[in-house]
Amino acid sequence: MAKKKDIEKVESAPLQPWENIENLIQVIRGKQVILDRDLARLYGVETRRLNEQVRRNIERFPADFMFQLTKEEAELSRSQFATLNAEDEILKSQNATSSDDFPRSQFATLNDEEENLKSQIATSSEDSSRSQIATLNARGSNIKYLPYAFTENGIAMLSSVLRSPVAIATNIQIMRAFTAMRRFIAANAQVFQRLEVIEHTQLSLAAHQEEADKKFEEIFRRLDDGSVTQKQGIFYDGQIFDAYVFITERVREAKKRIVLIDNYIDESVFTILDKRPKGVKAKVYTKNLTPQLSLDLEKHNAQYAPIEVEPFDRSHDRFLCIDETVYHIGASLKDLGKKWFAFANMELTTDELLTKI
Predict the structure, then answer these.
(1) I want to staple 107 with a disulfide (CB 3.0 to 4.6 A). Which of 20, 181, 238, 333 is the partner?
(2) So what's the pLDDT on residue 223?
């Protein structure tokens, strides 16, 4: 039971709103509430004394007026309180000149009078909030006493329990803070939406950046191990081995088929094509299928994976097709590196090229 002097303490306490009331409003279970410990500070009493008065008149405080937090909600209220303060500062800076801003003139900042008030409120080493929530220990949050949360209706009902002029005036200020909060949220709905969009965009950008980083890492890895294929280039006279290596590497890359269009071939071309993986088909279109070349082909196919050769005399240039990739080759494969020649990856597929034959 609350002592008479505790009630008198509320009734005689000077009206000193020493902190912005709107900063005490939290959102729990989808409702805007103020915790009992914060209300006790506004009224200038200990939390347990405030709750004693409420318990005396519990029939006036149904579940939508007041409810007790769970342990998880009590823990989250701490982090939510800090987050709301940070967002509030951002939004206030964007709306500093708005006529719908909070009535800051009614909520003075801490000054010498507030310091005096705090010294009056302090009762003993037993802090008012400690009567509801135990401090966090070094290994985590170990809440011993769970606080009560009062909705706007519950706080209005407190005026019927604490009926002094000071208590009523304090409640009026709290009601105005709730009203200002709703007006502020409504006026800045677009700002909140933009913040949500920005957060979503940042998450998307982070995901895209992570994907891009993976692609760059793969590109750099392939550059390091030499697995990136040049799309065009020039070999100069004397680069016989370099040109030979380039062509044989392309042949080894084949998965299904190789098609060569080259007017001038000999048995050395068969040797290059023999470097293709097992199961890969090879076909050559050439202008001069001489008796000697036919004999070389027959002997080759008797021992190695067969190569198909067909006569074709309507091409001036050389083309090497690796699966669906088409390379334009400036020199015949049998003459690689003897003179300058260029190569280029063409922007068409093997099937597109073969439809013209």
Answers:
(1) 20
(2) 57
